[in-house]
Amino acid sequence: MIISERKPLDELQEAVAPYQNFFLIGCGACATVCKSGGEEEVFQMQEWLIEQGKAVTGSMVIDEACHLLRAGRDLRHHKLAVQEADALIVLACGGGVQSISSQTEQRVIGALNSIFLGNVRRFGQYEERCSLCGECILNETAGICPVTTCAKGLLNGPCGGMEDGHCEVDAELECAWHLIYERLKQQKRPGVFARRVPPKAWSKRRKPGRHKL
Ligand code: SF4
Ligand code: SF4
């Protein structure tokens, strides 16, 4: 899930300042789950805009704002309210904001900052476990990602700073390589320690990413 959070209000204030009428768009997927762009947050944005002396022509929450076709279809369903707006405010990740801006000539204001691809520990508590590196080595590292969960992204074992199994960068965290070692030992296999992992081929993480089935 893409973890996102609302932009600081002073940044939003500056973004909305030149406009009077707004159409609001939330996302029913990730932004709803992490409570940054669901129904409730869209309503809160509406209340905040009214407090600022602005007007809201309408709002909607798209099932998945990153879905280009659905974004276009839902905008068409709200054509009049969208046209009455001077700007559209999108409470979705950067992908969602770009879906919307690719479907309209109108000014689009992103209201959220996208932070990382996150796992949900419990509501409101998210952890980054994968950096989408395009060359996954989890099968050799007992399902623990050193690229993301080692503070230095090391590929061939721990740095010299590990202490009692904890990370020298953040002592509250267990060292990713200590965890990998212990889990591989439990599984009775050498895993990644059987080879020297070459430097990461970041070319595999091409930008912009493209994938077709
Ligand atoms: S090795 Fe790469 S693809 Fe696999 S979990 Fe880590 S960052 Fe993600
Ligand atoms: S202590 Fe472990 S997790 Fe922390 S930077 Fe060094 S190798 Fe990575």
Give the distance, in angstroms, between the N- and C-terminal Cα atoms: 21 Å
Radius of gyration, Cα only, in angstroms?
22 Å
The overall average pLDDT, rounded, is 95
CATH fold name of the largest domain, please?
Rossmann fold
- Summarize the biggest pleated sheet: 4 strands, parallel
Bound small molecules, by name, code or SMILES, are: iron/sulfur cluster
Number of helices: 8
Entry summary:
By secondary structure, the protein is an alpha/beta fold. 30% of the residues lie in helices and 21% in strands. It starts with a strand and ends in a 27-residue tail after the last helix.
Question: How would you portray this structure in words?
Answer:
This protein is an alpha/beta fold and 213 residues long. The chain has 2 domains: 2-116, Response regulator (Rossmann fold, 3-Layer(aba) Sandwich), CATH 3.40.50; 132-204, no CATH class. The protein is built from 8 helices and 7 strands. It has a 4-stranded parallel sheet with strand order 3-2-4-5, with helices on both faces. Helix 6 links the parallel strand 4 and strand 5 (107-110). The chain is elongated, with a radius of gyration of 22 Å. The mean pLDDT is 95. The structure holds iron/sulfur cluster (2 copies). The site of one iron/sulfur cluster (SF4) has 10 residues, from helix 7.
